[in-house]
Amino acid sequence: MMDRAQLHRWLAPARKRSFLNDVGIALPVIAALVVLAGRQAGMTGGLIVAAVALALTLMIAMGRASRHDRGWLIHALDTRRPDMEDSTALLFQATSELGSLQRLQQARLATRLDHADPTELAPDWRGRTMGAMWALAAIGIALLLLWPQAGNAPPTLSPSNEGISAAPGLPRLTGQNLRIIAPAYTGSGIRDSASLDARVPVGSRIEWTLHFTPQAVAPRIIMLGGAAVTLRRDGDNWIASRTADASFLYRVDAASGRGPPPPLHRIDVIPDNPPQVKAIAPASSLTMVNPGQKSWAPVFVATDDHGVAPDARLRITLAIGEGENVTFSEREIPVSGSGAARERRFAPSLNFSMLGFAAGGDMVVQLIVRDNRSPIAQEARSPSLILRWPSPKEPESSGLQGMVNTTLPAYFRSQRQIIIDAEALIKQKRQFSADRYVAKSSAIGGDQQILRGRYSQFLGGEEEGEPEAPTADGHSADDGHDHGGPPKAPSAGFGAPEDVLADFGHPHDDSPASSLDPETRDILKQAVDQMWQSETQLKQGRPDLALPFAYKALRFIKEVQQATRIFLSRVGPELPPIDMTRRMSGKREGLESRKLAVAPLESGDGPVADAWRALGDGPDAIRGPIALETLDQWVRGNSDRLPDALALTGAIDAVRQAPDCGSCRTKLRALLWSAMERPGAHVTRRKPADAAGARYLDAIGGAR
């Protein structure tokens, strides 16, 4: 019986030669396809076609080689070897299943195969077919390489119309072509323009092909305000190229400045705008979780002038918990878009359990997309969308006239951070010198002071700070406030904000305006007192002694945060009292003038205004040449805010070339008027009083 090793020995040569024959025939076809793809789609397209074609070839060749199996071997041996006596199948049957004659025949066949060569069953080499395929592929590749590619063929020149009359011995432009090769990522390809004026994407390569009659010697392309571009001769034509990164004006000088100045031509560069992202679902930026909701699917749409990348990133920020126990986490997940390249739709599905989103938290999402710009893509971010999952316990409202807030401001969470910083400083004490240790402790004490000042505002005081002189709060005896007599004597409880205000000033909020109920107010006052003690120890470089007070302050703060509500009563503005004794008396003592001071107009349009007046018909007009260098520099420095800086530069050059050209001066003056800043609104003078008004003013003794 033939075992597995013997079977492989007879099948391997046939399979190998079949595989090599198929690959050898396919390789020339693959080479021709790669060259064709490279001509049409560039190197990237050629590599993609090569990879796909090779993979398909290997799969097909291996499939064809696998047809040489046990059945094929039995048929091949019976056909090609007469000594097998059409009994090869006996070699693959178990000896126990055969009769005595069959076992004898099986042994005779095995002996004959032991002295045979397995390669005699392998397919013949297909050398002629391979040679023919390689010859055909070589011819096809040569034709593809020699065939003119679109955009690489010599351009057809268009007649030029520069408006310059022919002069003996002076060359002039008679044929022209402008080839625009846009960046590959724009998908615009290559195009030829019969005009020397064009609008091109930023980063495009511009190629000029020009013909002069009679033949020019050293023509140039003169850039207005830049370096000239040198033309090189190519047969009867002259060619030049440059990359357009910004808009510019230029002229083709055929006679090296010997003839009249040629007209200006304009290349406008179209900038590549960053992608735009907007959220289309949900409609509002803040959304609440519905009962039973387990996932969220916001929808964004991204647009771009040259296409949006198919992959984007979704930034997810989770805020879980309340009060001092809020934890933040941020992550980014990849998101795939759908739709056309210039308008892609992103609709990620966010599972609450996978993200760890739970009740009492907020989920903030923001989509980050890129465009197809190469080599550096531009990024854009969408507006943030917030999904809020309220806590199961909601505060009950009441009928009080005012606003009910369920929590204190966000900065009430920072007391825990002060404790964390102090404990970390104690652990690192050996790493710092004594002065450095005290400085870091004092810095934490400064944070404690700021936090204490903020909490003190809810006790009726102002921003906490060092006690100052009696007049340091900016009030005076005649400021219109009721100061309530001389200051009172210092009272007990030094350091409380109410006492400081009672000693050195007057409170601007009366007791009904207090932001806390009496019970919560007392708890918060104890927290402020503990903060004071913590701050004192920290500023003295003793964070270990400050920790007990800081922990007590934190405990009182948590009690405040667990209060049922914070009531803010509605209060109106505090206007100074009206002096009833002066009503209808006509007394004007102490009243100040109501005339508003008119600030002088400041503008940076000095050179523009001077040139505008010089080009006009007024007394400042200049009929002869005008000094335009200063105006030209002003235009270059303010090109970003001008509506059309190139048109203004071209008009300046026209006046420079022809100072007596009336239409050129008129055009420049009009453009200067549109370039100047519009003055702001001025104070309108009051109209003079009529007869009735004059009699009224005379009667009350007022000025007209």
Shape: flat
CATH fold field value of the largest domain? Four Helix Bundle (Hemerythrin (Met), subunit A)
User: How many strand segments?
Assistant: 24
Which CATH architecture of the largest domain? Up-down Bundle
Taking the alpha carbons of the first and last residues, their distance comes to: 133 Å
Count of discrete domains? 5
Low-confidence stretches: 394-413, 462-514, 564-569
Strand content: 15-25%
Q: Helix amount, in percent?
A: 25-40%
Using the CA coordinates, give the radius of gyration.
45 Å
- Class by helix and strand content? alpha+beta
What does this structure look like?
Helices cover 36% and strands 18% of the residues. With 704 residues, the chain is of the alpha+beta class. The chain folds into 5 domains: 143 residues, no CATH class; 113 residues, Sandwich (Immunoglobulin-like); 97 residues, Immunoglobulin-like; 149 residues, Four Helix Bundle (Hemerythrin (Met), subunit A); 107 residues. The strands form 6 sheets. Strands 1, 2, 3, 5, 8 and 9 form a 6-stranded antiparallel β-sheet that branches. β20 and β21 form a beta hairpin. The longest helix has 62 residues. The radius of gyration is 45 Å and the shape is flat. The N and C termini lie far apart (133 Å). About 11% of the residues have low confidence.
